[in-house]
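TEACHING EXERCISE
Course module: macromolecular assemblies
Task: Read the component lines below, then compare them to the predicted structure of the full complex.
Student: A.B.
Group: 4
Components provided:
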Amino acid sequence: MPDDKILLAHGSGGKLSHDLIQQLFLPRFSNPFLQPLDDSARITNQTGPIAFTTDSYVVNPLFFPGGDIGRLAVCGTVNDLSMIGAIPAFLSLSLIIEEGFPISDLKRIVSSIFDAAEEANVQIVTGDTKVVEHGAADKLFINTAGIGWVKAGIHLSGMNAKPGDRILLSGPLGDHELTILSQREGFQFQGDLKSDCAPLNDLVGKMIEFSPSIRCMRDPTRGGLATTLNEIASKSNVGMVVEEEKIPVRESARGICELLGLDPLYLANEGKLAAICPPGEVERLLGVMRGHPLGKDSQIIGRVIEEHPKKVVLHTLIGGHRILDMLTGSQYPRIC
Amino acid sequence: MKFIDEFRDKDLAKGLLQNIEKTSTRPVQLMEVCGTHTVSIFRYGIRGLLPEHVKLLSGPGCPVCVTPNQDIDLAIALSRQKDVMIVTFGDMMKVPGSTSSLQKEKAEGKDIRIIYSSLEAIRIAQKNPDKKVIFLAIGFETTSPTIAVAILRSKEEKIKNLFFLNSQKRIPPALYALLQSEKLNVDGFILPGHVSAILGITPYQFIAKDFGRPAVITGFEPLDILQGVWMLIRQIEEGRAVIDNQYGRIVQENGNPLAMQKIDEVFVHDHAQWRGLGTIPDSGYRFKELYAEMDAANFDVEVEPPREHPQCLCGEVLQGIKTPVECRLFKTACHPENPIGPCMVSMEGTCHAYFKFS
Ligand code: SF4
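Instructor-supplied answer key:
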């Protein structure tokens, strides 16, 4: 490609669009579903329930330690499918690019999308690119939709939690959001911090295989663990008790949170899950999770109770307790 | 950063709580001046652990909360000017001014952006040479050195399009004003750790000397706070009043002279308007002549007369005279998604803390 910037013409459907697809995308994404380049992909019919989801990705900066917008766009949708117990199979990929965007950056992102799709064992079967005028979008937005297969007998839902159930968490909180924050001008706290962005389908697959009666799973992205647990408590009409001392947070992340006045329980993660399971299975499930690289720091962090339905109570590190509410608005670093 | 765990230990907390219980014989009201303390106190459930007769009151130490309407109105008026961009810290976006907020103006297309640090303002100004970038600069002694550095650097780099709407505040004069009020019913002060890391201990001496109240500079971890409370109660029980330093691992006797020097290089002390507390002598800053060209107050704009919601009790809440639950709007009309006063906006705001944690 001679020019090093994306032009409006790259999205016009003409020669440049054609070149872009042929040279940038197809070499990486070639598969029998995509190859015909028809208006839609034909995918093979399956029996049983199909999971279908979509999400749009906007992140600033586009590249960050531990990932980039491309990896995020694959992992996010794969994880959404996984959380209801589906086996992710196909993704669509749609890019909205701001005119003037460096083609070298686009190449990097496309390559990262490909790597993540391979890691997650999903195929990108249809796609689209649009180029908008300078200023009409912020560099690059990505939308992915995903289809997955749900095995018979698997029914994970936020409505399933029952008193007595246990709450598990797959690893330390806050790495993703703090990493993004660390990229802002004037913050020099990155250290060993990197985004936890990762596809969770393999971990989920193992968990379901060993413990098909898991009630529900969620990935605590925006709003963090606190918001996720509140959603489940509310949908299942149960209460929850969570032990703060059991919640893993990396030391570096904790230090930054203390410094900036942020609460790790409200920070976004991109490669963690919380699971609710019946009490009899919890130890075995914990073992399975810890046996997987993405779950090696898993902990049992709390339990589901009958009392105070729809409310999550946190037992604090020093023995106090407080209500753990949903995130309202956004968390900003403290000024004081 | 392993040290943090040591300040969150359950057994140590128990020991401190027992000490507090043993030492404390009479009812006391202690004020945590700083919003960060308020958040920590709620976050770790400290109120519920203290003996019933030890009461904690929140004070005026939330920079967003004490920013008066007139400053927000001015920022809004400026944002409506041609080729102006406002930059400010995230929490300022939602603070209601007299008739609008920065968030509303942004939605209507005004160029208003969130920054996370003072230095970010410089880069934004450099990247947008055709805009007059105005930094709505709020904060206490902890933030002011970074604002001063941004001003110094802007001068150094000859940036011509960066201006500062100066709404910074100084804590000690506000405490002085508070102590002069007859309505104040406070037996001792938990002083802010971060602000004190800049100021040191000396600027607080008047609290003990002129007003006979004890005070303890305190860290923000739960054990810091429990220990600070215990140190205060001991002073009260022993009839002493001095300024103690619980946060010695961060706060030096003479503070951070380098940071103070940066502030003094750019600003002189001046009176400032505080929400709820009115105009307090010496509690803010004015630009020194050399840097006055960066003062956004020089812009000629018409600003609407300031108007606050008549039922909002933020002013009294900031003085520790009322608690949020005494406000008729609390949790009814006023909540974090629709804040009526600034105390419901900032994470450090007392109303927000009450809303979130109780
Ligand atoms: S609850 Fe709202 S209206 Fe009442 S004092 Fe607090 S901020 Fe003001």
